[in-house]
Amino acid sequence: MLRGAIVGLGNVALEGHLPAWKDRKDFQIAAGVDSSKERISIFKKSVPGAVTFESFDECLVRNGRDRSLLDFVDIATPPHTHFALAKAALSAGLHVLCEKPLVLKPQEIFELDALRKKSGKILMTVHNWKFAPICRKISHLVREGAVGRVKRLDWYVLRSGPSVTTEKENWRLNPEMSGGGILVDHGWHAFYLALEWLQGRPAKVSATLENRQYESLPVEDTAKVSVTLESDGGPRSAEIFLTWASRVRKNSGLLEGTEGRILMEDDKLILDIGPASPQTFAFEAALSAGSHHPDWFNFVIDEFLSEISDASLAGRNFDKARACLELIEKSKASSAKGGAEMACS
Ligand SMILES: NC(=O)c1ccc[n+]([C@@H]2O[C@H](COP(=O)([O-])OP(=O)(O)OC[C@H]3O[C@@H](n4cnc5c(N)ncnc54)[C@H](O)[C@@H]3O)[C@@H](O)[C@H]2O)c1
Predict the structure, then answer these.
(1) Coil, helix or strand for 6?
(2) In this predicted model, what pLDDT tens digit does every residue of 144-172 receive, in sequence order?
(3) Residue 276: what pLDDT?
(4) Residue 127 CA: which ligand 1 atom is closest?
(5) How far is the centre of ligand 1, averaged over its atoms, from the C-alpha of 8 (Å)?
(6) Residue 141's domain spans which residues?
(7) Hey, which of 177, 317, 324, 336 would disulfide with 80, CB 3.0 to 4.6 Å?
């Protein structure tokens, strides 16, 4: 059994991660860390046997004394804290599962890459949208070649505002803490889904970041991003539109392949191939419903365990996270230059 600490006991940790960890027999949450006493007391009611700390430093001191306390950490704090926490955890010989965005700066991902290789520990980002039932179905259809070679993805995320946070001051609206607005909040998910389904390497990006509704916000409420990917089967493209300035809450998308297309309408998929009648797959919950999904997170735990157990899989998730960060950085740079095309490395 692997024993871990959750660092950051906010909304996603207690409503999305903890219920999934508690259902597992192969993992145990042995510690909880949060700078807020209130969040610690909510956590303690749910995991009475766990030890708690008001800082990760204190937790590491205890782990140094009691070597059997921890094998891993699950970081679910606001984005600006991820780098220092992941660095400290890897340096202490712990595996790391971290919420998205993994980090906010290229130099940080570079340092963590070196550290994860040196430590031999896993550094994985929570790419949970891959595991939403409707996204798993898309992945399955793509893998079995239902629409031939996938050439293009259109992806739309409509929200009526940013999500709330446990603290009164919403870190999502502070660029120093969040790294940006909806581009960082939802773009990270859109990018790893595009990489998964289009199976290519990002080559070029152009983007426009705007404030359509919340004009005084210091972060963008709307992002339009075009990504060109290179692959052995030729170029592929992703057109991504994300907004907090919508009246409706909805996710939709379209995957076009050489032999057909898959339409995603939040709670249904329509597979449209050649002259055959389109086939519809209905889902219990819309992709846009709720923000915390223990059922999706359970698959994230499986992925974490696979990377820990099988050396040949280690780093697969990290490579996608590195590409997500580059796409975010290049999107910001493109928007600052009026939507100019930026080359990827
Ligand atoms: N993958 C997803 O679907 C998804 C969904 C929601 C949030 N997230 C991500 O999860 C992370 C947390 O988001 P949230 O909505 O739960 O935020 P939140 O504000 O609800 O929770 C953050 C918690 O971290 C604590 N905290 C802040 N700094 C700390 C520190 N240095 N040490 C210990 N505790 C600290 C706060 O007290 C708070 O309890 C973010 O990175 C966010 O992007 C991911």
Answers:
(1) strand
(2) 999 999 999 999 999 999 988 888 889 99
(3) 83
(4) 1
(5) 6
(6) 129-289+322-343
(7) 177
User: Which amino acid residue places its CA nearest to atom 21 of ligand 1?
Assistant: 10
Considering 107, 125, 143, which residue would you say is the last residue of a domain? 125
Distance 190 CA to ligand 1 centre (A): 20
Mean pLDDT of 307-326: 97
Question: Cα–Cα distance between 48 and 169 in angstroms, integer?
Answer: 29
Q: Which residues pair with 95 in a beta bridge?
A: 72
| Nearest alpha-carbon partner for 238 in 230, 247, 248 | 230
| Predicted pLDDT at 167 | 83
Whether residue 12 has its Cβ less than 6 Å from ligand 1? yes
- Mean pLDDT to the nearest integer, 18-35: 98
* Residue 306 within any structural domain of the chain: no
Cα 140 to ligand 1 centre (Å): 31
- Please give the distance, rounded to the nearest whole angstrom, from the Cα atom of residue 147 to the centre of ligand 1: 38
Q: Is residue 177 part of a domain?
A: yes
How many residues are recorded in the chain? 345
Domain end marker among 84, 107, 125: 125
Ligand 1 contact via 8 beta carbon (within 6 Å): yes
What is the domain-level CATH number for residue 228? 3.30.360.10
10 C-beta closer than 6 A to ligand 1: yes
Name, in order, each residue with C-beta under 8 angstroms of 85's C-beta and a sequence gap of 6 or more.
7, 56, 73, 75, 77, 98
One-letter amino acid at 316 equals R
Whether residue 282 sits in one domain with residue 229? yes
